[in-house]
Amino acid sequence: MTKQKIKKEVKKHIPKDWLCELRILYRLTMETCNDIRRTGIVNLVIITTIAAILTIFGAFFRSAMTISSFAHELGNVLEISVYLKNGSDANLVKNKVGEFEHVESVKIVPKAQSWNDLKREMKLPDVENPLPDTLHVKVDRPENINGVFNKIKTLKSVEDMSYAQALAKKIQMLNHVVNSITILVVIILGILTITIINNTIQLVIQARKEEIEIMRLMGVSNWYIRFPLLMQGAFYGFVGSIVAFVPLHFVESWLLKAHQFFMVPAPLYAQTIVALTMFVMGIAFGSGGSILCIKKHLQV
After folding, report:
1. CA distances from 144 to 32, 149, 235 (A)
2. 191 by DSSP, 3-state: which?
């Protein structure tokens, strides 16, 4: 049995002293505060930089949500016009199309109605109605419109079909570009944050090098040495997230005005989602930077 396994077996039989655990946690918290105090004015620079990085991310993320909502609203306007053959039962075809996946609604426009609407708009000779019965099919999402179009085309009662294919492709491309840019921004900003935290924790380790060596010689556990450094990185990410809310509030206000102007509903809980994501990213990247630095510069 190895030494590490023997320690684990011994620890299982030692009763836990919760008061002692709380004292250790208090000690680690104070150690974290001391490390932050030792860093001095550099703390302000780090927090400001992380706040700027998170603000850029938050602005991109919130803008991406707005663009997606605009694209979705445009997609809802898109309809497939289905022109039926003479003698076809429009209600029967409507029921068949309504059963297709991704079809949101189907509306029948009788040929008599279409002809009357056309005669109101322009002068026409008194001839027999040449227009067919039409179905207006609404699809749930723009990216599904092509699949629904191909399914409807196979029906024998369908004479012809049309939809704004160019607009649908542009909406799909816009969504794809926005999502790709957002992911790229997250990766770049994550690397920048982790690099900044990494360099800061490295300075703290160098300043406490002798103290850490003494703790090692005394047999202090590894997590006791690592924990304050980990918490320091998380602290920078947390405070940076809070500071980032100030400029992000103005971005949110501007986007809400854009929604109101174009009469497009804003995404539900958009601000809450962005705020939670920024908190998670800030703390995760802050802790991640510390962990990488500890593994690289602190062999414990």
Report:
1. 53, 9, 44
2. helix
Tens digit of pLDDT for each residue in 209-232? 777 777 777 776 777 778 887 888
> Cα separation of 120 and 251, whole Å?
47
Residues 61-103 have pLDDT tens digits of: 888 888 878 877 776 667 888 888 888 888 898 999 988 988 8
**Packing angle between helix 270-297 and helix 165-207, nearest 10 degrees?**
40
- Domains (range + CATH), the chain: 17-73+171-297 (no CATH), 79-163 (3.30.70.3040)
Contacts with 265 (C-beta within 8 Å, 6 or more apart), sequence order: 69, 73, 259
Residue 269 DSSP label? T
Tell me the three-class secondary structure of 38-97, residue by residue. Answer: HHCCHHHHHHHHHHHHHHHHHHHHHHHHHHHHHHHHHHHHCEEEEEECCCCCHHHHHHHH
Kindly give, in sequence order, each residue whose CB lies less than 8 Å from that of residue 48, ignoring residues fewer than 6 positions away: 240, 243
